[in-house]
Design brief:
Blueprint lengths: L1 H19 L28 H19 L4 H8 L9 H12 L2 H6 L1 H11 L5 H41 L5 H41 L6 H20 L11
Helix pairs in contact: 1-3, 1-4, 2-7, 2-8, 3-4, 4-6, 7-8, 7-9, 8-9
Length: 249
C-alpha cells in the first residue's frame, strides 16, 4: 500500500511538472578546445602560456555552467511564469504543487507551498560556483605571472628575425612568415582571453538573475565574477593583445 502511494505521488509530481512547463535553456559559450587539458580545480602553473590560457577557458566554461539557474523545482517555478513568491492564484498553485509533489502540495496548500519553494529551491549552488570562481581567478593570477616573460620572448624573437634578415641569414619571405606566426599567436591569445571575459560576464549575469528571483548570499560571487572580468580585460589592454604586437620588417 505504501509503495503504491509513493508511486502515485511520483507520477503526480511528474504530471504537475509537465503541466507547469520547462525552464528556459541557457546558451553554452564557445571557446578554444584543447583535448590534452582536462583540468578541474587545479591551477596550471609552469606550463606554456597557451596551455594556461586553455585552462583558464575551461575554468570559465565550468563557471558559466555552474552559475546557470537549474533544477527541476526551479524549472517548475519558472515554467509557471512566476518568481518564487509572487504570481496569480493559479500560478501559485502550480509552483506549490510542483515543488512539493502534486497531491502532497495540494494538501499543504498554496501558501505553505510558496514558503517551501523559497526554502528548498537553490537557484544556483553557491559552493560549486565559489569553487569555479576560485579556480578561474587562480588560473588568471598564474597567467598574469607568465605573460610578461612570454611576450618578452616574442619580442626578442622578432628582433632576432630582423637581425637575421639584415645579415642575409634568412629571406624576406622567411622573415615575414615567422613574424606573421608570432602575430597570430598574440591575436589567438587575446581572443581566448576575450572568451574567458565573456564567460565571467555571463556568470555574473546568471548570478544576478538568481538574486533577482530570490536567492540570497551571492554578493561575494557576483563581485568576484565582476573582478575576474576586469582582470582579464585589463590584461588585454595592458599587453595590447587584441591588436597583436607592432611588427616591423
Amino acid at each position: 500500500m505504501a509503495l503504491n502511494l509513493k508511486l502515485s505521488l511520483i507520477a503526480a509530481a511528474g504530471l504537475t511538472l509537465a503541466a507547469c512547463g520547462q525552464a528556459p535553456d541557457v546558451a553554452q559559450s564557445t571557446r578554444m578546445n584543447n583535448s590534452a587539458l582536462l583540468f578541474y580545480d587545479d591551477t596550471v602553473q609552469g606550463a606554456s602560456v597557451p596551455d594556461q590560457v586553455a585552462a583558464l577557458n575551461e575554468a570559465a566554461d565550468r563557471l558559466v555552467r555552474r552559475s546557470q539557474i537549474n533544477g527541476a523545482l526551479v524549472g517548475a517555478a519558472l515554467g509557471c511564469g512566476v518568481t518564487l513568491a509572487t504570481g496569480s492564484s493559479s500560478t501559485r498553485d502550480c509552483v506549490a504543487a510542483a515543488a512539493l509533489g502534486g497531491a502532497a502540495g495540494a494538501v499543504l496548500g498554496t501558501q505553505r507551498g510558496e514558503r517551501e519553494v523559497a526554502r528548498r529551491v537553490a537557484l544556483v549552488a553557491e559552493g560549486d560556483v565559489a569553487r569555479q570562481l576560485n579556480a578561474a581567478t587562480g588560473q588568471m593570477a598564474a597567467l598574469r605571472q607568465s605573460l610578461p616573460a612570454y611576450l618578452a620572448d616574442q619580442e626578442a624573437e622578432l628582433n632576432r628575425l630582423t637581425m637575421q634578415q639584415i645579415k642575409g641569414q634568412i629571406t624576406q619571405q622567411e622573415h615575414d612568415i615567422a613574424v606573421l606566426e608570432i602575430q597570430q599567436q598574440r591575436l589567438d591569445l587575446g581572443g581566448a582571453l576575450e572568451l574567458s571575459a565573456r564567460d565571467a560576464r555571463t556568470a555574473a549575469a546568471n548570478l544576478r538573475a538568481a538574486t533577482q528571483r530570490g536567492q540570497t548570499g551571492l554578493d561575494w560571487h557576483i563581485q568576484t565574477a565582476d573582478a575576474l572580468v576586469d582582470d582579464v580585460e585589463s590584461a588585454q589592454l595592458e599587453y595590447d593583445l587584441m591588436n597583436g604586437p607592432l611588427l616591423g620588417g
